[in-house]
Write a structure and sequence with these properties.
The protein is an alpha/beta fold.
Length: about 550
């Protein structure tokens, strides 16, 4: 065995065919870099994941009872930190967590026709400059980032620039030079998607404006009552002096959001309602994010994870990977990748997962686009989310298939909280998107055997993905159609990585042609069954009770 390992450490054999790496040895001493293009991101509703501090469950006299799953349920930042410390995310192979917005929300409630609703979801901002106490304190956020980083996990917050929260009896409308309250968007053209309100009573920030505006009176009064008016105004003066921007609405909000980078060292933002704003706003936002991230690194050299740049992923509703870099409004096409974005959420993945007739059709499609049209960028794939009422598996009958397709597909994966535990998306008494946002099913994870089996499958695939850049960011190549076996290879600089995967295999005895990715006599491990094998004549033989094989070089 030692002889084999010694040989492996000395030999690196690489050949190229059609600009693809066909043979690569994966043992080397180079530290595995982090790439957002192949990351495994966990998306959660801060209020619904885990309640770590019951003392902050009630604030701002939010005592009225909302409709089913439309009020605050108690989840908070401390609850997320607790689960990091327990190892939940590491066991799931998660290397980044995206939280719904945690800034201060409107204090009142509205009835959208689906019952009394509070801002539990975080998308109804009242004050960008402070956290909502229902979600937690600045100390809690700082601790979350530090604990996450110590566990190799990055933190992505959610940026809302497009709108304020609704107007209620407790929440005033912002001044006319800040927002418009009509017309409502009809989405037929670029203008009727940007210069309008998403829905009734959701004031739209005039992001197209370059005119100087004053801080809203109600916000100034709030800051004075909280004893921080002078500090906030000084910081604004410094920001506008440094940047030279006019004191227009969008620049205020950009300043307020990038403060969370400078202060806490967050690693990325998911941008909300991207296509409802002029695309140049996002380029300006990304520039300020990069500046803030570099300032944080300069001020906190001992806390810097690595040289990875700040991440910005956009929600351009209905963007599809098949469209490459362009989004078509009908009367105008926009390239958001050239306006600050590293990646866009891919609304097409759930359809591809359902409609393409094989794993190979799915994987090769994504490989082709990501290695060509989207080279240097990424997409964020998902099977369910907080506002998609038609997910891949609404009834949670295909949880194993969901994991296999999502976590083994090229691109970045988004695990929506509860995907890994078949959390129900159909809650009796809940209407609209509320049914997608139930509390995390921790009791089922602890006590239900079927849930544990599903979670184990997600954990194995997630950790395999996290351990190998080749899975999400590498080059895909089918080795054999029947049985279905494919390879993923990644090579950049001194770092090399390769895996071989078999799917829909026979249970029990199986022999797989693994191509020429690994050298003769290489010692491999099936990460799914933890079975050790040795390469003989480009073949491996193993006996496992599973229909999936995840082959990696033995460390």
């Amino acid at each position: 065995m030692k002889k084999y390992l010694f040989i492996l450490l000395l030999i690196v054999s690489i050949s190229c065919s059609n600009k693809k790496q066909d043979k690569i040895l994966t043992i080397n001493n180079t530290e595995k870099p982090f790439l957002w293009e192949g990351a495994n991101i966990y998306f959660l509703l801060t209020d619904r994941f885990n309640n770590g501090d019951v003392s902050n469950d009630l604030n701002f006299s939010r005592t009225r009872v909302g409709a089913k799953l439309r009020g605050f349920e108690g989840g908070d930042i401390k609850g997320i930190t607790q689960k990091i410390e327990e190892g939940y995310f590491n066991n799931l192979g998660i290397n980044a967590i995206w939280l719904t917005p945690i800034v201060e929300q409107i204090h009142g409630s509205v009835d959208e026709g689906t019952g009394l609703t509070f801002a539990y979801h975080g998308y109804w901002t009242k004050d960008w400059t402070t956290l909502d106490p229902n979600f937690g304190s600045e100390e809690a956020l700082r601790n979350l980032v530090e604990v996450a980083h110590k566990n190799g996990i990055r933190i992505v917050l959610d940026a809302v620039i497009n709108h304020t929260g609704p107007v209620t009896n407790l929440d005033k409308v912002w001044p006319e030079d800040w927002v418009r309250t009509g017309p409502q968007c009809d989405y037929q053209t670029y203008e009727s998607t940007t210069a309008c309100t998403l829905v009734k009573n959701l004031p739209d920030i005039k992001t197209e404006s370059e005119e100087n505006v004053e801080i809203p009176k109600h916000l100034a009064e709030k800051w004075k009552a909280e004893g921080r008016y002078d500090q906030e105004m000084k910081e604004l003066d410094d920001f506008f002096k440094r940047t030279g921007y006019p004191r227009a609405p969008k620049y205020y909000i950009i300043k307020w959001l990038t403060d969370y980078i400078t202060e806490f060292g967050i690693d990325g933002y998911r941008a909300d309602t991207v296509k409802h704003m002029e695309e140049n706003v996002w380029g300006e936002f990304k520039n300020e994010c990069d500046y803030a991230f570099n300032q944080w690194k300069k001020n906190n050299p001992a806390k810097v994870l690595d040289s990875t740049n700040f991440y910005l992923v956009g929600e351009v509703y209905n963007y599809s990977i098949s469209n490459g870099q362009l989004f078509d409004f009908g009367d105008k096409k926009v390239n958001y990748f050239k306006n600050g974005f590293n990646s866009l959420i891919n609304f097409e993945f759930k359809w591809n997962a359902a409609q393409l007739n094989s794993y190979e059709a799915l994987f090769s499609k994504y490989d082709s686009i990501l290695q060509n049209d989207l080279k240097g960028f990424g997409v964020l794939n998902y099977i369910s989310s907080h506002d998609d009422g038609d997910p891949f598996d609404k009834e949670r009958k295909k949880s194993f298939e969901s994991a296999t397709k999502l976590l083994l597909c090229p691109g970045t994966s988004q695990v929506y909280y509860g995907d890994e535990s078949a959390r129900s998306l159909t809650i009796e008494g809940a209407t609209g998107d509320a049914t997608l946002r139930s509390n995390m099913n921790w009791d089922e994870i602890a006590n239900r055997l079927q849930t544990k089996e599903i979670l184990t499958h997600w954990q194995k695939l997630g950790k395999f993905r996290n351990n190998h850049l080749a899975v999400g960011a590498g080059i895909h190549k089918m080795i054999s159609k029947q049985p279905y076996v494919f390879q993923r290879t990644y090579l950049k600089g001194d770092f090399k990585d390769a895996v071989v995967v078999g799917l829909d295999l026979s249970k029990g005895e199986k022999q797989l042609n693994i191509g020429d990715v690994f050298v003769e006599n290489a010692v491999l491990v099936d990460a799914y069954s933890n079975t050790e094998v040795i390469v003989k004549n480009r073949m491996v033989s193993l006996n496992t009770p599973f229909s999936i094989v995840l082959l990696e070089i033995k460390n």
